[in-house]
Amino acid sequence: MGTCFSCNSTSILKNIRVVHINGYVEDFEEPISVRQVIGYPSKHFLCTSTLLLSTSSKPMNGNTHLQPGQVYFMLPYSVLQADVSPVDLTGLVKRLSAIAKASPLSSQNQTVWCSPSRSPSKAGAAEQYGVGKMNIGGRSPCKVQSWKPILDTISEKPYNRRSESDWQESY
């Protein structure tokens, strides 16, 4: 008796989303090609989750035009090495896909790169933190936080040797 309609948000469908391996998300307006996003020559490649999880994982051709509404991953070529297992790739795809979904565009605060040459992957330090972006809604975008490891001290003990303190205690 009732009718149900379902509709997805169209705000993300208008842009091309690129997620870097470190979790940084970029949105581009169309038309744009793979080569325009990654630059030339590049140490990175673009692919979709389907391409990455296929048995013959290959980077996308540089002349390929990216499709609006599609999520692409920018990854280093080292991901394609033979010692990377399909389980590792699946985990990577899940993590990057979750990041892409968790940072949707909103109509109040959209950051869209008008030109790939203004993208942080091509920009200097000043541009990486907001200069050269088109802000829709008047708010400045978030800054990228640097990653810093938490390290512990590792004590080392000699193997089959007595330390000076052990030697002094025995006399």
Overview of the molecule:
The protein is α+β, with helices and mostly antiparallel strands. 22% of the residues lie in helices and 15% in strands. The strands form 2 sheets. The chain has a 4-stranded mixed beta sheet with strand order 2-1-4-3. The protein has a two-stranded antiparallel ribbon with strand order 5-6. Mean pLDDT is 68; it is low at 1-12 and 106-144. Pfam families: PADRE. InterPro entries: PADRE_dom. This is DUF4228 domain-containing protein.
Keywords:
15% strand; two-stranded antiparallel sheet; disordered N terminus; alpha+beta; 4-stranded mixed β-sheet; 5 helices; PADRE_dom; 171 residues; DUF4228 domain-containing protein
The neighbouring-strand order within the major sheet is: 2-1-4-3
Count the domains: 1
Spell the H/E element sequence.
EEHEHEHEHEH
First and last CA, distance: 95 Å
**Annotation, overall tally of beta strands:** 6
Question: Which spans have pLDDT < 50 for at least 5 consecutive residues?
Answer: 1-12, 106-144
Task: Give a quick rundown of the structure.
This protein has helices at 34-38, 49-53, 86-102, 125-128, 164-169, and strands at 16-20, 25-28, 44-47, 71-76, 110-112, 134-136.
Summarize the helices and strands and which ones pair or pack.
Blueprint: E1 16-20, E2 25-28, H1 34-38, E3 44-47, H2 49-53, E4 71-76, H3 86-102, E5 110-112, H4 125-128, E6 134-136, H5 164-169
Parallel strand pairs: 1-4
Antiparallel strand pairs: 1-2, 3-4, 5-6
